[in-house]
Amino acid sequence: MSGMMNLVGSSDQENDGWRKGPWTPQEDQLLTEYVKLHGEGRWSSVSKCSGLKRKGKSCRLRWLNYLRPGLRRGHMTPEEENIIVELHAFWGNKWSTIARYLPGRTDNEIKNYWRTHIKKEKKSSKNQEKRRIPLEKKRDQEVITNSVPQESHVVIDEPPLLMKQKSSLTRLLSMDFQYYNNFPPVLMPQENIAENSWSDSTCSSIFAMEGLWDGLWNVDE
DNA sequence: AAGCCATGCAACCGCCGGTCA
DNA sequence: ATGACCGGCGGTTGCATGGCT
């Protein structure tokens, strides 16, 4: 903690010749020009080529979280919040993975949002949740029963946690979440789940969401 | 008006995995 | 095979700001 104190503060703060703390508009401009010329990556050479006295990591973070084109700034929409809640229920704190489903949002932003907004809400509505859970469980059970045919390759001795995860994603794909108009085709939630633990129908459900995502981003902020 | 407190967010750190010489 | 380097990721910190007393 005390270590952090001497890092941030004055924007002129330096450490071994490296600048730390808030970025100035001039630094932003230098970084932007560097990326325009050299593209993303090779962050370690930014300081050499651009004259920035920032470490590569710092440059990368600044670019990805703030300067990169196409970033969506401002409040999360209720739709985005719901997506975050559902994906977090599935992946946990895999912020970068979750961010891939929210174009224009960064993992840092989502992480911050989760900690400040959603976690707080969950805490405050804990009592309400307790009463809601039995209903959710029942609905989840119904969705699983309906969407995963008996003859598919479902792992039989599935651990309870996995069942919970599958339930969450299945619900995400269900019509409860009509704003999932276009499920990004890039990523499949295979990281936590054995390849053959998903039924063919579930996988095709996911890919069936392709081509509809645009609708979400037209939602007014 | 001033002080305190809670909240939001930008930015840093350490760890880890991938790549390459 | 291995060590150095780099980038990605999640966790954490502290500043800025706004609301409350």
Briefly characterize the structure.
The protein has 221 residues and is mainly α. It has helices at residues 2-5, 25-38, 46-50, 56-67, 78-91, 95-99, 107-124, 126-147, 160-173, 200-208, 214-217, and strands at residues 14-15, 18-19.
Description of the molecule:
- The protein is an all-alpha fold and 221 residues long.
- It has two domains: 2-67, Homeodomain-like (Arc Repressor Mutant, subunit A, Orthogonal Bundle), CATH 1.10.10.60; 78-217, no CATH class.
- The protein has helices at residues 2-5, 25-38, 46-50, 56-67, 78-91, 95-99, 107-124, 126-147, 160-173, 200-208, 214-217, and strands at residues 14-15, 18-19.
- It has a two-stranded antiparallel ribbon.
- α5 (78-91) runs antiparallel to α9 and α8 packs across α9.
- The longest helix is centred in the middle third of the chain and has 22 residues, at 126-147.
- The radius of gyration is 21 Å and the shape is elongated.
- The two termini are 37 Å apart.
- The chain binds a DNA duplex (21 and 21 nucleotides) through residues 1, 3-5, 7-9, 20-23, 41-44, 56-58, 60-62, 64-66, 93-96, 107-109, 111-113, 115-117, 120.
- Pfam families: Myb_DNA-binding.
- This is DNA-binding transcription factor.
